[in-house]
Amino acid sequence: MSAPLLRVDNMTVRFGGLVAVNDVSFAVDEGELLGIIGPNGAGKTTSFNAVAGAVRPTSGTIRIGDQLISGRPPERVARMGVARTFQSVRLFRSMTVAENVTLAASTVCLTMAAAGRRAAEVAELLGMEALQGAQVDALPLADQKRVEIARALALAPRLLLLDEMMSGLTDQETRAIIGVIRKLNDGGLTIIVIEHVLRVIMELSHRVLVLDHGVLIAQGPPREVMTDPHVVEAYIGRQAAQTFREHETLREQR
Ligand SMILES: Nc1ncnc2c1ncn2[C@@H]1O[C@H](COP(=O)(O)OP(=O)(O)OP(=O)(O)O)[C@@H](O)[C@H]1O
């Protein structure tokens, strides 16, 4: 059997006396779309930061394929195939969309011309050709989030980490971003999504991990995880679990 694309073994991240991530292990297969959920402060973003190289795990290991990435700096991890977006959009606001994406591409391309070509490819993939000349400042939040995705894709990643893409978006905008994520995954890209909007996790994920106080309390197919009594207790709440079950039953009857 082939090795998973991402493998995290016994990862612990401490900030002084606080254990933000506590002995967490999981693996992600090539082509998989994994959702990570959990209450505020559960350690989701810290786990992303550790995988992306922005935070050094206190102990444990992280591998892409058979290469150890834990402890390596973010630029190196990016070159080894891990790209991420941030919870709050981090773009060069006075630059155009094309400039932002080209700049990201230049970290992995040998020449600026190649970076420009890469940015144009990504724009085409995301259907953003018409936005290329727009200044980021002038774009609505939903488009800025698409530019964030474009910047990450410009690195030609093997693994894409998406941190709360849907926060602040309308239902319609959320649907559009779900469509983008699904298209990327259908094209073979391995993706991990952190999301508070459970409907999004349910719709997109092949598998879900649940963190609570830094501890991995459940993992499995979305349907199973959402009705796991520990998860309901820690995060979802009984009412939401009941609503979810009714929604699923209705969907099956359709
Ligand atoms: N750089 C840091 N220094 C100190 N403490 C931190 C740091 N980053 C995160 N923490 C703490 O680690 C814990 C986990 O935070 P983290 O941001 O990973 O949670 P989260 O699950 O992503 O939460 P949210 O859903 O609110 O984004 C929290 O108690 C947070 O305050």
UniProtKB/TrEMBL annotation:
Signal peptide: none
Pfam families noted in UniProt: ABC_tran, BCA_ABC_TP_C
Molecular function GO terms recorded: ATP binding
Name of this chain's protein: ABC transporter ATP-binding protein
SMART domains xrefs: AAA
UniProt-listed InterPro entries: AAA+_ATPase, ABC_AA/LPS_Transport, ABC_transporter-like_ATP-bd, BCA_ABC_TP_C, P-loop_NTPase
Source species taxonomy: Bacteria, Bacillati, Actinomycetota, Actinomycetes, Pseudonocardiales
Key words, A-Z: ATP-binding, Nucleotide-binding, Transport
Gene3D superfamilies: P-loop containing nucleotide triphosphate hydrolases (3.40.50.300)
Domain of life: Bacteria
Organism for this UniProt entry: Pseudonocardia adelaidensis
ABC transporter domain span: 6-238
